[in-house]
Amino acid sequence: MNAHVLAIATPPETMNAPTPATSPRKGRHTFNVQEALLNDIDRGVLTPGMPLEERALADKFDVSRTPVRDALKQLAQMGLVKLTPHAGAQIARKSIGELRALLEYVSELEPLCTKLAARRVDALQIARMEAANALCERCANTPEEYGKANEAFHDVIYDASHNPILANQIKAARRQVKMYRVGSLASPAHIQRSLEDHAAIVKAISSGDERRAMEAMQKHLPAGNTGFSEFLAKVPMHYFDNESANPYALMRL
Questions:
Q1: I need a labelling partner for 70 at 20 to 30 A (CA). Which of 34, 82, 117, 179 fits?
Q2: Which of 81, 80, 186, 83 is nearest to 140 (CA)?
Q3: How far is CA 146 from CA 1, 96, 184, in A?
């Protein structure tokens, strides 16, 4: 049967009527629930392993369970929520190996993004990057605010790469890593090292030095053995899955 026959056979009111699954109200409720949960994950209110009960969330957001269920499915696709049949949902827990793999992934892609930024950056983006770095300096004595300013600094570099596909991949991976970032920017010494790295990154990108920009970003990221060990030391073990509770899991890394 060709498309012309199908069009004739389908009543116009059936073709045009919105279905419940695509109704604007349902989509808005799903989006609102998803954004609220994302915000709680980003702020550390929801941490790996925490249960997410559909009925309680529906009551909290004053919606039916359907948009809650849809929001949880979308978060599961992002790697932030784990859905288990007959057991419900929880904030996803990674193994230690998975967390290291994510950090390695970011540590390969972000220097590439920085290289592209050095190649393509313009005067406006250099000004934005310098402003973002200045904000980091002003927030140096407030770890929580520094963390937010640091994210904004990296976001400017992603934009300067003019490669949204690469930027979105990095942001998705960093969001999963962020759930495990417990006090990693809390010490004054760490913040000072971070600021020194930022200065080197800004200088390399502004001068268009692609190689130096990549190297500066590689130095900035905690993917090496020492950096990963320091990162891991601050993460509560109950954030990891059962395999990671085995001390021999660390020996395989």
A1: 179
A2: 186
A3: 62, 26, 11
User: Of 90, 108, 89, whose CA–CA distance to 174 is shortest?
Assistant: 108
* Residue 251 pLDDT: 40
Encode pLDDT of 141-163 as tens digits.
Answer: 998 899 899 999 999 999 999 99
pLDDT of 49 > 80? The answer is: yes
For residue 226, the tally of other CB atoms under 10 A from its CB is: 8
* Residues 82, 241 contacting (CB under 8 angstroms): no
* Interatomic CA distance for residues 215 and 20, integer angstroms: 52
The letter for the amino acid at 88 is G
Burial code of 157-178, b = ≥16 C-beta within 10 A, e = fewer? Answer: bbbbbbbeebbeebeebbbbbb
Could you read off the pLDDT of 3-41 as tens digits, one per residue? Answer: 443 333 444 443 444 444 445 666 899 999 999 999 999
pLDDT in tens, 168-199: 999 999 999 999 987 655 688 889 999 999 99
Task: Specify whether the backbone of 136 is left (phi greater than 0), alpha (psi in -120 to 50) or beta.
Answer: alpha
Domains of the chain with bracketed CATH: 3-91 (1.10.10.10), 96-251 (1.20.120.530)
H helices present in 23-95, as ranges: 24-42, 54-61, 65-77
246 vs 54: CA distance, rounded Å: 31
